[in-house]
Structure formats: C-alpha cells, structure tokens
Amino acid sequence: MKFLNPHDPFFKPLWVRILVVLVPLVWAGLELYSGSQTWAIISLALGFYAGLQLFWVFYKTPEKGDKE
C-alpha cells in the first residue's frame, strides 16, 4: 500500500490533484508566517511529495505486473 496512490480514481480530475498539492503548500506558508519553521518544512515536504506523485507519477502508466 502506498502513502498516496496517484492511480486511484479519486485523483483523476485535475482540480482534485491541484487542491491536494496546494493545501499543504499554503499551510507551509501560514506556518512560516506564524514563526514555526519545523511545521513549515514538514508541510512543504508533504506538498512536494504530493506534487511529485500526482503530476509526475500520475502520467506514467502502471506496468502490467504492478499491483495497485
């Protein structure tokens, strides 16, 4: 089981993928504004990971033998 499965039908609409990436990035900005660098880095990493999974891996088709 993956942390974030980009081939799940839930992530098919573009607006859902954009929202899932933007929410942690905006939250990271709010944490930086409030002075909490640790939570900002964690939120930034989550947003970056979601972006990689939903926009880089999403367009790659799963291999025949891969389990989802």
Write the layout of secondary structure elements.
Layout: H1 14-34, H2 37-57
Helix pairs in contact: 1-2
Describe this structure in words.
With 68 residues, this protein is mostly helical. The chain has a domain at 13-57. Helices cover 62% and strands 0% of the residues. The chain has two helices and no strands.
Largest sheet geometry: none
**Count of helical segments?**
2
Order of helices and strands: HH
Low-confidence stretches: none
Cα separation of the termini = 7 Å
Mean pLDDT over the residues: 86
Helix-strand category: mainly alpha
Helical content class: 55-70%
Strand content: under 5%
Number of strands: 0
Overall spatial form: elongated
Keywords: Membrane, Transmembrane, Transmembrane helix
Organism: Allorhizobium terrae
Protein name: DUF3329 domain-containing protein
